[in-house]
Design brief:
The chain has 498 residues and is mostly helical. The protein has one domain: Sodium/glucose cotransporter, CATH 1.20.1730. It is 77% helix and 0% strand. The chain is built from 20 helices and no strands. α8 packs across α15. It is found in: Cell membrane. It catalyses: L-proline(in) + Na(+)(in) = L-proline(out) + Na(+)(out).
Length: 498
């Protein structure tokens, strides 16, 4: 624990104070770009596409890749690398496939601010927009995962009690997002992405003095893992979520789909011109490669060096404390904290903008038909900002009961959302018979079955549960759309995508 070293403790505290001061200042600067609902949600054209790309990669990573997945690697060994390798390769390919057409649809529809609004415009359905906005509330559990990861860092390395760690993280994030919206979120995430890349590279470099073996360092790491437990070096695990070829294929399916998560795909809507998509996707790929392939290896090294940790999620914090000089350890710890915050702020922004833009904006006129467009925009912005506090308090309350596995909790939350929206987004690109009724059926069938599969233990593996729930979603949408399709629906398809 850092409290054993006053120099390390105070270095981390000073760096964190400076860091929180900077992100709050950026939030204040972003206030001028957050005076409308669209500006608060996307800050379109206000941030460099290179920085938006780094922000995408940082938001993608979160506590899951920096705490949760290394924790799984500590538990189950090298089979977890299937997840890590898919994060860069499969997810980035997914982004390259989806980004351009998604952006072009957004351009066709006008100033679209969120994924639920994109779906609502594509299918000409306000009911679908509201339904998906409700589905996005599953991201509260994702936020809980980030809270737990941050509190674990504070507790493990600084000695701050778990509950106070959660309170600090929630308070800081709500403050700068409430001030600066998407502008603050993307600028701070871009900076956080660079810190995360530096931390990941340092973890990799450290193997040469913690594990040894010179240029054969990975061979040495494998040998030591195998000596501890031969199951830790299996390509397909004996236990855990990577215990079959089918499960691994389902993981790749999940990672391919993950870039459709609303808090990530919203960043495509922040790009002003089509020409900026190239630097955006290139920046995403470079940063994502570094931060997704290196940090998880630290979990394997921690299993060799500290085989008896009480919590697997403490693998990376413990490895950093014991393996680096004071200043470097402090920098890496701040980098890990920034990794957690980079997803937390994106999730808060995604949930709250959806509440304001996709729920209140649609529902309010039903109760007061005299509201003007300007009044609705102003009120929806106030609702979005006000809901920050409510969502923050809700996530704080749920976070008080620490989950057994940070990674499993996070993946439950986003798998529920993806099971519902994957079919409407992907089929909406090219299938002329895709209808609003089919899309609604897909959202209900996919998300509903995923919850049933996981909560009733029908399918215990969360990746397989998502795969089969998504498959059912595609089938439901195909059948209902085929029955209800007409020329009106076909006219909504983007005719020219090249």
């Amino acid at each position: 624990m850092l409290t054993d070293s006053s120099l390390l403790l105070w270095t981390v505290i000073i760096l964190l104070v400076v860091y929180f001061g900077v992100v709050t200042w950026i939030g204040q600067r972003g206030r001028k770009h957050s005076k409308s609902m669209n500006g608060f949600a996307t800050a379109r054209g206000k941030v460099s596409p290179w920085l938006v790309g780094a922000s995408f990669a940082a938001s993608y990573s979160s506590a899951n890749l920096f705490i949760g997945v290394p924790g799984l690697a500590y538990q189950y060994g090298t089979s977890v690398l299937w997840y890590t390798l898919g994060c860069f390769g499969v997810s980035w390919v997914g982004l390259l496939i989806f980004a351009k057409t998604f952006w072009r649809y957004g351009k066709k529809f006008g100033r679209v601010s969120t994924v639920p609004e994109w779906l609502g415009r594509r299918y000409n359905s306000k009911a679908l927009q509201v339904l998906v906005s409700v589905l996005i509330l599953f991201n509260v559990y994702y936020i809980v995962g980030q809270n737990v990861g941050l509190a674990t860092i504070f507790e493990t390395v600084i000695g701050i009690p778990y509950v106070w760690g959660i309170i600090i993280g929630v308070t800081i994030t709500i403050l700068y997002i409430g001030l600066g919206g998407a502008y603050a979120q993307m600028i701070t995430d871009g900076i956080q992405g660079l810190l995360m890349a530096v931390a990941s590279i340092l973890i990799f470099v450290s193997f040469f003095w913690t594990i040894g073996g010179g240029i054969n360092v990975f061979g040495e790491l494998t040998s030591q893992l195998n000596a501890a437990d031969p199951n830790l070096t299996r390509a397909i695990g004996v236990e855990g979520p990577y215990n079959s070829v089918l499960a691994i294929m389902a993981v790749q399916f999940l990672l391919f789909s993950f870039i459709l998560m609303p808090h990530l795909l919203n960043k495509v809507l922040s790009i002003e011109t089509e020409e900026e998509l190239a630097p955006f996707t290139l920046s995403t790929g470079i940063v994502l490669f570094v931060i997704s392939t290196l940090m998880v290896l630290g979990g394997l090294a921690a299993r060799v060096l500290f085989p008896a940790l009480e919590s697997a999620d403490a693998a990376i914090p413990m490895y950093v404390i014991e393996s680096f000089p004071t200043i470097i350890a402090a920098i890496i710890i701040v980098g890990i904290i920034s990794a957690i915050l980079s997803s937390t702020d994106s999730l808060y922004l995604g949930v709250t903008t959806s509440i304001g833009n996709d729920f209140y904006r649609i529902v309010a006129p039903l109760f007061n038909k005299n509201l003007s467009k300007d009044q609705i925009d102003s009120q929806s912005l106030k609702v979005a900002k006000g809901s920050l506090l409510l969502v923050g308090l809700l996530s704080l309350y749920i976070s008080l009961d620490r989950p057994e596995s940070l990674s499993i909790l996070i993946q439950f939350s986003f798998s529920a959302i993806l099971s519902g929206i994957l079919a409407p987004i992907s089929l909406g690109y090219f299938w002329k018979k895709a209808t609003n009724y089919g899309a609604i059926a897909a959202v209900i069938a996919g998300a509903g079955l995923y919850v049933v599969f996981t909560q009733l233990n029908v399918i215990e593996n969360i990746y397989l549960a998502m795969f089969f729930a998504s498959l059912a979603s595609f089938v439901a949408m195909g059948i209902i759309s085929y029955i209800t399709a007409n020329e009106k629906h076909e006219a909504l398809v983007l005719k020219k995508i090249s």
